[in-house]
Amino acid sequence: MTDTSDRDLAPTGEIARRRYLDILHQFTLRQSRLSTLDDIVWNIAKTAIAELGFEDCVVYLLADDGVTLRQVAAHGPKNPVAREIYNEITIPLGDGIVGHVAKTGDIQCIADTRQDSRYILDDNARLSELAVPITHAGRVIGVLDSEHAEANFFSDEDVQLFTTIASLASTRIETAMAMERLEGTVQHLEKARLQLELQAEELRESRLAAEAASIAKTNFLANMSHEIRTPMTAIVGFAELLAEGGGSGDQQATWRGQLTRNAAYLQDLIGNILDMSAIESGTLQVEREDIELLSTLTGSVEILRARAGAKGLELTCKQHGSVPERVVTDRIKLQEIIVNLVSNAVKYTEHGAIDVELSAEQDGDGARVAIVVRDTGMGMTESQLDNLFVPFNRVHDTRRLAGIEGTGLGLALTHEFVEVLGGQVAVTSQPGEGSEFTVSIPCELPADAVWRAPAVDNPFLKSVPVKPLSQPVTSEPPQSLRDFHILFCEDSEPIALLLATLLKKAGARIDHCANGMVGLQLFEELVASGTPPDLVLMDMQMPVMDGYEATGRFKKLQGTVPVVALTAFALKEDIDRCRRAGCDHYLTKPIRSAAFANTVREIYDSYRQQLASGMH
Predict the structure, then answer these.
(1) What band does 467 get if pLDDT is binned at 50, 70 and 90?
(2) Backbone angles phi, psi at 588, to 5 degrees
C-alpha cells in the first residue's frame, strides 16, 4: 500500500475508519437535502473529497450531446475561488483516462501517468490519477477524477472510497440532471408558448389590419365612386343639354356654370388623390419661390367665397400686425393648405361665420407665418380629433350627415403639406361650438423684404350671399313622361337641377326634396290626399335621413309606388343594400341625359307589368 501519512483522513486504523464512515454519513445526509445539480456536484468536490483529505478532485458529467465530458466542479488547484473552475476543459468521450472511463465504465487507477499515453495535461502535470465512473441504471453519466503529484499515490482503499462516493451521489446527480432537463424542457415549452402567443397576437393584429385595410379599401372605393360619379353626373348631363342646343340663354348660362364648377371639383379631387399618392411614395417635392403673401392668401380664400355665400355664411379675413409683403415658400402647397382649411370650415358650418386671420413674426433671418381658420360649425369630439388627419377618414357620421361630401383627403393633405414645409398645425374644437385650425409655417425672406401693417381698408372682403340656383323649366314639348308625377329626393343642387330639367322636359310634374325626411313628409301628405306620385327617384346618401331609411318608410306607407335608387355608389354591395332597403330598381350616376326619361319610363312600365302578373 502506498504511504498516505500526509493525509489526515487516510483509511488506516480504527479511528480513521470511524472518521471516514462519519464523513460519508454526513455527506449522504447533506446530499439528501440538496436539489440543484450545481449544489450536488460542488458538495462532492468541496465537502466529501476535501474533508477526506485529498488534494485534488474534478467532477465530470456527460454533456447533453452524449459525446463530451465537461468539468462541473473541482477541489484543489482547479478551484482557486468559490465555485469557479480554472481553465475549464471538455474531454471527448473515449479520449484520455477520464474519457476512457466514461466510455467503458472501467475504474482507472494510474500509478505513473508518465507511462500512460492517454494522460491529458490540464493545469499541472501529476504522476498519479484515479478515475471512477458515476453510473446510474447501468449507464455512465459522469466521472469522479483525482490526481496527485506523487507516483503510486492511490491505494485500494482510495478506489473503494471514490467508488462509494460516486455510487452514493449518482442517483442524486441523475435526478438533478433530469430535473434540469425537465426545467429546460418546461422553459423551452414556455418560451415556445409565449412565442406562439406572440405569433397568434401578431396574426390577430395582421388579420385585424387586413380586415381594416379591406374595409378601408371598400369604403375608399365606395367614396371614390360617389365623389367621382356625382360631379360626372353634372358634367355629362349639362354637357348633353348644351350639345342639344335647347334651353333659354339664362338656362344655358346656368348649365355652363354647373359644368365648369363640377369639372373644377373633379380636377381638385383627382389632384388630391395624386398628391396623397406622391406623399405615400415619398416623391412629394417642395418648390420654393418668391411670392406675395397677402395676395396669395386672398386669392386662396376668394375661391371659396361663392360656396360660403350659397350657404349664407359670412366669410371674413383679418391681418393682425405687420406681415412681410413677400416670402419664399411653396406657393401651390400654401394655397392648397388655405383652400382645404376654409373648404372644410364651409363644409361643416351651417350657420354663422368663418374667420381667417393672418399674422407673422420674425424668426431668425426669416419669418413664421401663422394662419388661423375659425368656424361656428358642428365641432368635434376628442376621439374625432384623434383621427382628424388620417387619410380617407371622415370623422363625422356619414349616415346622419350624408350630404357632406368629401373623400377624407383634404385635412390629411393639409397636415402633410404643413409638415413638409417645416410647420405645425394645431386644432381646438368643441361639439356644437365650432373648430379652430392654426397653421404655423416658417418662411424665408427675400433680401429686400418689407414688413407692412394692415391697410385701413381690409384687403379681404366680406362674403355676399349667393342666390341658390333655380330650377328652370324648359319650353320644349313633353315626351315619354307626359302627365307623370315624380317625386325625387336629391341633396346635390347640381344634380337636382339636372333631374328637374330632364324630367320636366319629358313632360313630368315633379316634386323635389333635399333629404329623406322632407321627402317622407311630402310623401305622407300625397298618400293621405289620395294622390301618391307615380314613381320615386331616391338618392341614397343624404343628410338628416338617408335614402335607405326613407325607402323603407315609403314602402310601408304605399308599397305599390316604385322607388328607383339613383346613386353614385356603384359597387355590388351597394346594389344589394338598395334592394334590401326596398328599392325596386337601381340607377347609377352619371346618367345619360338623352336616354334618362325613356329609362325611367321603361322602369315604370316594367314594374307595372310585374304588379299585374303578381310577380312583384
Answers:
(1) very low
(2) -105, 150
Residues 6+ apart with CB under 8 A from 241: 247, 255, 498, 501, 502, 593
Burial class for 531, CB neighbours closer than 10 Å (0-12, 13-18, 19+):
exposed
Which helix (H) or strand (E) segment holds residue 442: the answer is strand 434-443
List, in sequence order, every residue forming a beta bridge with 375; answer none if it has no partner.
354
- Closest to 165 in 3D by CA, of 340, 21, 376, 39: 21
In CATH, which of 3.30.70.100, 3.40.50.2300, 3.30.1360.120, 3.30.450.20 is domain 485-613? Answer: 3.40.50.2300
Q: What separation in angstroms does the CA of 323 have from each of 28, 158, 342, 403, 579?
A: 94, 102, 21, 39, 58
CB 590 within 8 A of CB 233: yes
Query: For the residues 513-520, what does the mean pLDDT come to?
Result: 94
78-82, 209-213, 333-337: the lowest-pLDDT one = 209-213
Segment 608-613 mean pLDDT: 83
Q: How far apart are CA 201 and CA 488, in angstroms?
A: 50
Phi, psi (rounded to 5 degrees) for 171: -65, -40
The grid coordinates listed for 459 are: 384687403
* Cβ(578)–Cβ(554) below 8 Å: no
Phi and psi torsions of 480, nearest 5° = -70, -20
* 232-239 average pLDDT score: 81
Beta bridge partners of 368: 361, 442
Q: What is the DSSP code string of 348-412?
A: T-SSSEEEEEEEEEEETTEEEEEEEEEE-S----HHHHHTTTSTT---S-TTTBTTS---S-HHH
Q: What is the CATH number of domain 259-452?
A: 3.30.565.10
- Do residues 410 and 237 lie in contact, with contact meaning Cβ atoms separated by under 8 Å? no
- DSSP states along 456-487: SS-SSPPP-PPPPPP-----SPP-TTTT-EEE
Average pLDDT, the chain: 82
| CB-side neighbour CA atoms (13 Å) of 141 | 19
**90 three-class SS:** strand
Q: Would you say 294 and 459 are in contact if contact means Cβ atoms under 8 Å apart?
A: yes
Nearest residue to 329 (alpha-carbon basis) of 285, 370, 369, 289: 289
Three-state SS for 512?
A: strand
What are the extents of the domains in the chain?
Answer: 14-185, 259-452, 485-613
Distance from C-alpha of 457 to C-alpha of 454, rounded to nearest angstrom: 8
Question: Domain 14-185 maps to which CATH number in 3.90.1200.10, 3.30.720.210, 3.30.450.40, 3.40.50.1220?
Answer: 3.30.450.40
Which is nearest to 338 in space by CA: 457, 266, 418, 421? 418
Number of Cβ atoms within 10 Å of the Cβ of 444: 15
- Other CB atoms within 10 Å distance of the CB of residue 552: 15
* 3-class secondary structure per residue, 518-575: HHHHHHHHHHHCCCCCCEEEECCCCECCCHHHHHHHHHHHCCCCCEEEEECCCCHHHH
Please give the grid coordinates belonging to residue 247: 334651353
- The strand pairing partners of 353, in sequence order, are 314
Residue 112 one-letter amino acid: D
Confidence of residue 472 (pLDDT cuts 50, 70, 90): very low
How confident is the model over 64-88, as a mean pLDDT? 87
DSSP state of 311: T
Would you mind telling me the total number of residues written for the chain in this entry?
616
